[in-house]
Design a protein that fits this description.
This protein is of the alpha+beta class. It has two domains: 26-90 and 106-141, no CATH class; 162-645, Glycosyltransferase (Alpha/alpha barrel), CATH 1.50.10.10. It has 20 helices and 24 strands. A three-stranded mixed beta sheet has the order 4-3-5, with no helix packed on it. Strands 8-9-10 form a three-stranded antiparallel beta sheet. Helix 9 crosses helix 12 (360-370) and helix 16 (484-494) packs parallel to helix 18. The longest helix is centred in the N-terminal third of the chain and has 25 residues, at 195-219. The chain is globular and about 100 Å long. The protein starts with 11 loop residues before the first strand and ends in a 13-residue tail after the last strand. The structure holds 1-deoxymannojirimycin (DMJ). The site of 1-deoxymannojirimycin has 9 residues, from helix 20.
Length: 658
C-alpha cells in the first residue's frame, strides 16, 4: 500500500502540508544552527587561507617533509609571510660579501617582481588566469614533491644556497634551504646605478614574465606557443614530439633574471618529463644549441646533477649522427633509432657548415663534466677535417659532403648556413681559457678572408657582409648575420694586435647597419633580409624577406658592443627595440613575430619562438645590467645565448663547494 508520505523522498516529510527537510526533526534551536554554520565557515576560511598563504611547497621532498619544512619556513619567515617579499636585488637583502653589496640572497617563497603592481596587471590579467596559474602551480608542486631518485639523493647530500662573490671568487654559504632541489649559485644582481636603466631592465623582465606565463597557461610541456591561437606551435626542427622546447630554452634566462621559482618549476618538469628516447627526427644543430646548450648552462649555473645527467643522455643519443664515412655529422637524427640523414635540399646530400661547426662548445664541455672524452673527440675530428680541406680564397663554403669530405656548392655566407661556424671557432678558443690555439688561428684566418672578400661598403657608406655564390657577389645581408658585429668586437678585444682597431671599426659598422635596417622600417624592427641598392639601402626588396620572427642577432651585437665599448648608443638602440617589441609583437597571449616590418599594422605570424626567451630577452636584459652579471671574462654564449663557463673560471665544473 502507498500513500503520499511513503512516496516522498526520504529526506522530506510534510509539516502542515509543507515539505520539510528531515533534519528539522532534530529540532535544532536557531542559536545552535548559527553556531554550526559559524564553525563550518571558520573551517572553510582556514582551508582557503592555508592554500593561498602558505609559503612555496614546491621544493619539498615528500609529504612528510613538506609539512615539516613548511613549519620550518613559517618559523624562519616571520612577517615575510604576510608582507610582500623584497624585490629581487633589493639592497636590504644583500649579503655584505660582494663589492658594493653585489651578492643577492634569494628570497624563498612567492616571487615578487620589482614593481609588484605592474606585474599583477601584466601577469594576472583576470580571475580565470589566476585560477589557471594556481592550478598549474599546484600541479607542479605535486610533481616537485615526488622527485626522482637521483634528485632526492642529491637533496640529501647537500642542499645549500651558495653565493658567488665576483670580488674574491670565494663561495660562501649564505643560507641553508634543505628543501631546495637545486644547488643555487647566486649570481650578482647586476642592477645598474642609473634608475632609468633599471626601469628599462624591469620592462624586459616583465616581457619575460608575460610571454612565459602565457606559455605556461596555454602550451606547458609543448615545444612552443602560438600566442594568438593560444595553443601549441609545432615546429619541424623539434620533430613531432612535444619536448618542452620553451621550458628548456628559457631555463638560464629565468635563472639570470632571478626568477628562481619559475626556474625550479621548469627543472621539476625536466626531471620528470624530459625524455630523449623519442621516435622522431630532430635537427642535430637545433637540439644541440637549444637543449644540450641549455642543460649544460643550467648545470654550470647551479651544479644540479639532474641537468648534467639529462645532458649526458642527450649527448649519447646524438652520437650516431657522426657515424658517416668522414665523421662529419648529418643534419637530422632520430633520437630513438639513431638513424640519421641530411636534408634533401642541401646541395646533393651535403651537411651544412653552420650546423657541423656549431657543436664544439657543448660537446667539449660535456666531455669535461662527464669525464667521457667521446664527445670532445667527435667535434675535434670535425674540425680536423675542415682544417685540412683546401679553401677557395681562404673561405669556407656552406656545404660539405659527409661521404666524400669535399665541399658542395661554393656558397659563402655569414648569414644562415655559415654564421655560427665562425662564432664557434672564436668561442672555442675563449672557452678553453685561450688554450685551444688552433681554433683561434682558424678563426683569424677565416675572418681575414671574410674581411677581404665579403665585407663591403654600400653606396652611402653602410658596412655589410655580402653573400658569395661562387664568384658572384650578392649585395644583401641576412638578419642572421647581424650577430657578426658582436663576434668581430669580441675577437678584436680578446686578442689585441695590429687588426684590433680595424676589426672594432668593422664591428661598429656592421652593428650600425643592422640598426639602420631596423630604423628604416615602420615598426622599428628589422626584416629577415635587406639589400644595398643605391637609393634603397638596408631594406628588403621582396615580400618574402620582410618578416621578423623575434630574432635576437642585432640585440646580441648591441649587448657585446655595449660591454666592450661602453658607447651609450647601444643601450639606446636596445631600448628602441624593446619599445618596438612591446608595441608590435606583444599580444595578450604572449609575443608574436610579424609578417611585414614595413607595415605599422603588420599581420602576425602567431609564433612565440623559444629563442625569444633564450636569446632575445636575455641579451636585452643583460644590455641593461651591470657587467658583473654574466661577465664576459667568465662566460661564453653559445649560439642560442646559453651561457657556458670559461675553463679555469669559478663556474667551469660547478661542483658545489660547501
Ligand atoms: C637561434 O636559434 C640561434 O641563434 C641560431 O644560431 C640562429 N637562429 C636562431 C635565432 O634567430
Amino acid at each position: 500500500m502507498t500513500n503520499a508520505t511513503n512516496v516522498l523522498p526520504s529526506y522530506q516529510r510534510f509539516v502542515n502540508g509543507v515539505p520539510v527537510p528531515l533534519f528539522s526533526r532534530r529540532s535544532f534551536r536557531a542559536k545552535e544552527k548559527y553556531l554550526i554554520v559559524l564553525v563550518f565557515l571558520t573551517f572553510s576560511a582556514m582551508c582557503f587561507g592555508t592554500f593561498f598563504f602558505l609559503p612555496d611547497l614546491s621544493s619539498t621532498g615528500s609529504a612528510y617533509n613538506s609539512v615539516y619544512q613548511v613549519y620550518q619556513k613559517i618559523q624562519k619567515a616571520g612577517p615575510d609571510l604576510l608582507l610582500p617579499a623584497p624585490p629581487h636585488g633589493y639592497s636590504g637583502s644583500r649579503d655584505s660579501h660582494g663589492p658594493g653589496g653585489g651578492v643577492n640572497v634569494i628570497h624563498i617563497g612567492l616571487e615578487r617582481p620589482n614593481n609588484a603592481e605592474d606585474e599583477d596587471i601584466h601577469i594576472i590579467e583576470d580571475k580565470q588566469k589566476l585560477q589557471a596559474k594556481i592550478d598549474e602551480e599546484y600541479q607542479q608542486q605535486k610533481t616537485l614533491e615526488k622527485p626522482d631518485a637521483a634528485v632526492e639523493s642529491r637533496s640529501r647530500v647537500s642542499s645549500s644556497v651558495v653565493a658567488w662573490s665576483p670580488n674574491n671568487r670565494q663561495e660562501d654559504i649564505v643560507q641553508t634551504v634543505s628543501s631546495s632541489p637545486a644547488i643555487r649559485v647566486i649570481l650578482p644582481d647586476g642592477e645598474d646605478k642609473d634608475p632609468v636603466v633599471r626601469r628599462r631592465r624591469d620592462t624586459v623582465k616583465k616581457m619575460m614574465l608575460h610571454g612565459w606565463q602565457q606559455y605556461v597557461t596555454y602550451a606547458w610541456g609543448k615545444n612552443e606557443l602560438k600566442p594568438i591561437s593560444k595553443k601549441e606551435h609545432v615546429a619541424s626542427i623539434f620533430g613531432t614530439t612535444a619536448m618542452g622546447a620553451t621550458i628548456v630554452d628559457a631555463l638560464d634566462t629565468l635563472y639570470i633574471m632571478g626568477l628562481h621559482e619559475k626556474f625550479n618549476q621548469s627543472r621539476a618538469w625536466i626531471a620528470k618529463n624530459l625524455d630523449f628516447d623519442i621516435n622522431s627526427e630532430v635537427s642535430l644543430f637545433e637540439t644541440n644549441i637549444r637543449f644540450l646548450g641549455s642543460l649544460l648552462s643550467s648545470y654550470a649555473l647551479t651544479g644540479d646533477e639532474i641537468f648534467k645527467e639529462k645532458a649526458r643522455q642527450l649527448g649519447e643519443r646524438m652520437l650516431p649522427a657522426f657515424q658517416t664515412e668522414t665523421g662529419i655529422p648529418h643534419s637530422l637524427i632520430n633520437l630513438h633509432t639513431g638513424t640519421s640523414r641530411n636534408y634533401g635540399w642541401a646541395s646533393s646530400g651535403c651537411s651544412i657548415l653552420s650546423e657541423i661547426g656549431t657543436l664544439h662548445l657543448e660537446f667539449a664541455y660535456l666531455s669535461d663534466i662527464t669525464g667521457n672524452p667521446v664527445f670532445r673527440s667527435k667535434v675535434e675530428h670535425v674540425r680536423k677535417v675542415l682544417k685540412n680541406l683546401e679553401k677557395p680564397k681562404g673561405l669556407y663554403p656552406n656545404y660539405i659532403n659527409p661521404r666524400t669530405g669535399k665541399w658542395g656548392q661554393h656558397h659563402m655566407s655569414l648569414g644562415g648556413l655559415g654564421d655560427s661556424f665562425y662564432e664557434y671557432l672564436l668561442k672555442a678558443w675563449i672557452q678553453s681559457g685561450k688554450e685551444d690555439v688552433e681554433a683561434r688561428e682558424m678563426y683569424d684566418e677565416a675572418t681575414a678572408a671574410v674581411v677581404k672578400n665579403m665585407v663591403k661598403k654600400s653606396p652611402s657608406g653602410l658596412l655589410y657582409i655580402m653573400d658569395l655564390k661562387f664568384d658572384r657577389p650578392e649585395y644583401k645581408m641576412g638578419h642572421l648575420a647581424c650577430f657578426a658585429g658582436g663576434m668581430f668586437s669580441l675577437g678584436a678585444k680578446t686578442k689585441e694586435n695590429e687588426v684590433t682597431d680595424k676589426y672594432m671599426e668593422i664591428a661598429a659598422g656592421l652593428t650600425n647597419t643592422c640598426h639602420e635596417s631596423y630604423d628604416r622600417s615602420a615598426t622599428k624592427l628589422g626584416p629577415e633580409v635587406f639589400h644595398f641598392i643605391e637609393g634603397n639601402e638596408a631594406r628588403s626588396l621582396r615580400s618574402g624577406e620582410r618578416y621578423y620572427i623575434l630574432r635576437p642577432e642585432t640585440f646580441e651585437s648591441y649587448f657585446v658592443m655595449w660591454r666592450l665599448t661602453k658607447d651609450p648608443k647601444y643601450r639606446e638602440w636596445g631600448w628602441e627595440a624593446v619599445q618596438a617589441l612591446e608595441k608590435h609583437c606583444r599580444v595578450p597571449g604572449g609575443f608574436t613575430g610579424l609578417l611585414n616590418v614595413y607595415l605599422v599594422d603588420s599581420p602576425k605570424d602567431d609564433v612565440q619562438q623559444s629563442f625569444f626567451f633564450a636569446e632575445t630577452l636575455k641579451y636585452l636584459y643583460l644590455l641593461f645590467s651591470d657587467d658583473n652579471l654574466i661577465s664576459l671574462d667568465d662566460w661564453v654564449f653559445n649560439s642560442e645565448a646559453h651561457v657556458l663557463p670559461i675553463k679555469g673560471k669559478p663556474f667551469y665544473r660547478a661542483e658545489p663547494i660547501l
